[in-house]
């Protein structure tokens, strides 16, 4: 017997039902209901909460708080991003050049959109055979490039002071992104030489290059608005401030993409975006609620050592990885870990930027079915992959490789910083 987790449903596969072939395992497998994975997560959250001793009111309150924690932000991000993706998919720009452009733009898109899901959804229609390159690039950019993961974590830790720390985080993030991104690309070449793509690139022509430039105009607008927002800061004008923030810039970019789309196809873009957003919001909310219940029962903060240096960085990395495995959502992980880790970082004396990136790199582990990003990439880049176990190995393996490479660089930099720091000279008597 083998198990398959297919399109959000847990089903059995190739079970021999002949009476002489029945075993206690096959009988138990046939007795398990065929339910969507969301139902299983709800049931598991309720069962864990009750078994862990939570009262009925506390359990329901924790579930509600976890479910709705980030749904508003995700709705503002996912809906315009999927509209942008639907418009781009109708632009017919899946050329070899478009695939390369999408792959190279993925890290910046992941950071600029403050979400790897939205960056992948927007770029994948143009990626052709480079969809996994886009997936791992967007994943790395969101977690390592300022103003995404580093800004979120640094703000939560309370280490973003007015002393140039933002520039330091931006430079360190850019330096980390290149090798981490390259590690993901190398993993794809070794583990999935064909890219596991279900869409082949079309021959490139002058017309397709012109279409490519027009199709990527919304991303140019997005970049311009984000830069303007970073330079101008709050203006006091609500509408202008909204357009200059990442979510508002994304809305403006989606509206430009709609304006470039034929009027008869715009409603289809909206309908597709609503369907994709609704399904992901349900998965994200349920996974976050499950994580909230489990986090309420498990004192994960106790695993972090309060010593200085490498032990603290490894502890922060492990803590974040544990939260990510439980929460699924990277954004929810950042939101949950930073308040817990802040006292440890301040008390340990570890370099603040190193602590920020230890947490960011811990959130790479892992891309599993309780993460909305898994389902997004699984149903698109890996749609032709029949084995769910292989899909998990491809996505989780690549994320782990990226995390290990990045963490090795952070530890090396921390050791170099320690060795190069001036030491006090002690003169012994005589």
Describe this structure in words.
- It contains 19 helices and two strands.
- It has helices at residues 24-31, 37-51, 56-67, 71-89, 96-112, 116-127, 131-144, 149-157, 165-191, 206-215, 217-232, 238-244, 246-260, 263-297, 310-327, 330-348, 352-362, 372-378, 388-420, and strands spanning 2-6, 9-13.
- It has a two-stranded antiparallel sheet.
- A hairpin with a 2-residue loop joins strand 1 and strand 2.
Helix content: over 70%
Give a count of the beta strands, DSSP E runs of length 2 or more: 2
The sequence of SSEs as H and E is EEHHHHHHHHHHHHHHHHHHH
Number of helices: 19
- Unreliable spans are 1-21, 195-210, 423-428
In percent, how much strand structure appears in the residues? Answer: under 5%
Distance between the termini: 78 Å
Tell me, rounded to a whole number, the average pLDDT.
75
The coarse overall form would be globular
Main-sheet strand order equals 1-2
Structural class: mainly alpha
> How would a textbook summarize the main sheet?
2 strands, antiparallel
How many whole angstroms does the radius of gyration measure?
Answer: 23 Å
């Amino acid at each position: 017997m083998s198990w398959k987790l297919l399109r959000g449903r847990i089903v059995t596969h190739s079970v021999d039902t002949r009476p002489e072939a029945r075993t206690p395992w096959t009988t138990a497998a046939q007795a398990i209901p065929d339910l969507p994975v969301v139902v299983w997560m709800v049931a598991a959250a309720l069962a864990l909460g009750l078994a862990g001793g939570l009262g009925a009111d506390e359990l329901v309150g924790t579930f509600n708080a976890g479910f709705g924690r980030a749904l508003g932000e995700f709705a503002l991000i996912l809906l315009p991003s999927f509209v942008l993706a639907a418009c781009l998919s109708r632009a017919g720009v899946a050329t070899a050049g478009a695939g390369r452009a999408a792959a190279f733009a993925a890290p910046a898109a992941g950071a600029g959109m403050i979400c790897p899901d939205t960056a992948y959804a927007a770029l994948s229609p143009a990626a052709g055979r480079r969809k996994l390159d886009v997936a791992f690039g967007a994943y790395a950019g969101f977690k390592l490039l300022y103003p995404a993961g580093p800004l979120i974590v640094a703000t939560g830790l309370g280490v973003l002071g007015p002393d140039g720390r933002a520039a330091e985080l931006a430079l360190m993030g850019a330096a980390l992104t290149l090798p981490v991104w390259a590690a993901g690309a190398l993993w794809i070449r070794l583990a999935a030489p064909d890219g596991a793509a279900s869409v082949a690139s079309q021959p490139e022509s002058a017309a397709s290059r012109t279409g490519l430039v027009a199709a990527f105009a919304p991303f140019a607008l997005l970049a311009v608005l984000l830069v303007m927002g970073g330079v101008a800061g709050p203006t006091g004008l609500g509408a202008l401030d909204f357009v200059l923030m990442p979510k508002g810039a994304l809305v403006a970019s989606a509206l430009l993409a709609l304006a470039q789309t034929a009027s008869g196809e715009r409603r289809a873009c909206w309908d597709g975006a609503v369907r994709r957003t609704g399904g992901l919001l349900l998965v994200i909310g349920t996974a976050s609620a499950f994580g909230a219940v489990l986090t309420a029962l498990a004192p994960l903060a106790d695993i972090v050592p309060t010593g200085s240096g490498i032990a603290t960085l490894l502890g922060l990395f492990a803590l974040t990885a544990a939260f990510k495995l439980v929460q699924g959502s990277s954004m929810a992980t950042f939101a949950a870990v930073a308040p817990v880790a802040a006292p440890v970082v301040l008390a340990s004396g570890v370099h603040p930027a190193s602590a920020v990136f230890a947490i960011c790199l811990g959130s790479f582990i892992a891309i599993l079915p309780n993460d909305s990003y898994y389902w997004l990439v699984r149903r698109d880049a890996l749609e032709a992959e029949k084995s769910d176990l292989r899909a998990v190995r491809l996505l989780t393996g690549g994320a782990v490789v990226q995390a290990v490479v990045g963490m090795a660089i952070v530890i090396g930099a921390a050791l170099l910083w320690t060795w190069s720091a001036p030491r006090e000279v002690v003169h012994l008597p005589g």
